[in-house]
Request: fold
Amino acid sequence: MRSTEEVVETLRQALVGAGIVLPSLCVDPVTGASEEPFALVELGRCNVRVAERLASVVRGERPAVGTHAVDARDGRVGEVVAHDGRDVRLRPVGGGREWDCPVVSLAAAQQGELVRARLRRTNQDSVRG
Reply:
């Protein structure tokens, strides 16, 4: 049987792989120091965005809430904010009017696409003054 520390590290790596960071994830110090055969794992506190992403991952939603995706119909990059049956609601990078996109028309946003979308938004904002 693996140690509690090993299990916590495995959970940490799995969460990071899903884009979720729980900074206070650790072995509960009280049960970890006792004679209990199974120490408790302290998941800790997280903000609402992390909790929303965690719930999305647990539900098996792809792409998960809080990640970025590309609408293949027109190339727009957006943050996934909700799932509604066969559609995913996306919010433009930097904010703006949300839109629905069929799941079949989505692709994961690559880092370069996300950087370009952020730069495009910054340029638009600077032109508007």
